[in-house]
Design brief:
The protein is α/β, with parallel strands linked by helices and 316 residues long. Helix content is 26%, strand content 26%.
């Protein structure tokens, strides 16, 4: 088959590389425009664009998906199938109808759970013990298309987004190759999603990382893991933003009722034990605004924090 591939981040580049090594022909790639990144804000191509150009595949980087010229360019590639992996844009109806085999998507959750832009983060936030990968046909409603293949993946209790992605991407790549082969051979049948099981995983915003110390310690600990590496879980100390990179439930520790949430109960080499709305949280790796991330003992030497002091919930 002739395949047009649409994707942007590293996970999508991995699937593209696998498709390029498979029997079918990737005739063109669509990815998001180059973006400024890093401290110098130099313009950087997406990982998918870099992977495609290394292999001599033509690349389009449209700013607007509804540009009539874009549809004409895609049609000129005469695709039999369009594959979408973490492209980051919603495809208009004419693109969904472009190829005889339609559009298929790799989604990093067990649909209908966690439809949306951040399925891995929300699986961690909700304390799931299993998640997985789904391939589906794309329809106009977000992540609502019929399912082609799926595979379950176990989650570790200390899972972070990078560790979960490292598990899910190889599974997604394998499922994609099986999906393409199954469609070509006409032996795949799609099944509709169960509307009763639908949950959503909306795109994260920077402010989502702000720690609400009135929440239970278990919930805050999941947020620290779910928001690694972005937007990071954060709080404030003396008006400066403090990122919390690692935390765990304080063993057998509970905050006294008299301690306000956010109060440092004790601080030492093992970390900062902080009162929450339910139990205590041990902060073991932190980063003060404008400084490097560091273990709790090194952080304490420069921050001047001690027992009885309290993290602020907002910038003063």
């Amino acid at each position: 088959m002739r395949i047009v591939y649409m994707g942007t981040p590293p996970c999508a580049a991995a699937s593209l590389e696998a498709l390029l090594d498979a029997p079918d022909e990737v005739v063109g790639v669509v990815t998001q425009p180059d973006r400024p990144s890093g401290r110098g804000q130099a313009t950087t191509p997406s990982p998918v664009r870099e992977a495609a150009e290394r292999r001599g595949i033509p690349v389009l980087t449209p700013v607007r998906m509804k540009d009539p010229g874009l549809l004409e360019q895609l049609a000129a590639w005469r695709p039999d199938l369009v594959v979408v992996v973490a492209y980051g844009r919603i495809l208009p109806r004419p693109m969904l109808d472009l190829a005889p085999q339609g559009c298929v998507n790799v989604h990093y959750s067990l649909l209908p759970k966690y439809r949306g832009a951040a399925p891995m983060q929300w699986a961690i936030l909700q304390g799931e013990s299993v998640t997985g990968v789904t391939t589906m046909r794309l329809v106009e409603e977000m992540d609502a298309g019929p399912v082609l293949l799926s595979e379950t993946v176990a989650m570790d209790p200390d899972e972070t987004v990078p560790s979960l992605e490292a598990k899910l991407v190889p599974v997604g790549t394998r499922l994609l190759l099986r999906t393409v082969a199954g469609l070509k051979q006409g032996r795949l049948s799609a099944r509709p999603q169960d509307p009763a099981g639908v949950t959503f995983a909306p795109m994260l915003k920077k402010e989502d990382g702000l720690i609400d110390w009135t929440r239970p310690a278990r919930e805050i600990e999941r947020r620290v893991r779910a928001f690694t590496p972005w937007p990071s879980a954060f709080t404030y100390w003396k008006g400066k933003l403090v990122k919390v990179h690692r935390a765990s439930l304080a063993d057998g520790a509970t905050a006294r009722e008299s301690e306000q949430p956010g109060t440092v109960l004790d601080a030492g080499a093992a970390g900062l034990r902080v009162a929450t709305g339910g139990g205590a949280l041990l902060l073991t790796e932190l980063q003060m605004e404008g400084r490097k991330r560091m273990p709790a003992d090194a952080f304490l030497r420069g921050a001047g924090l001690r027992a009885g002091m309290r993290f602020e919930r907002a910038h003063r």
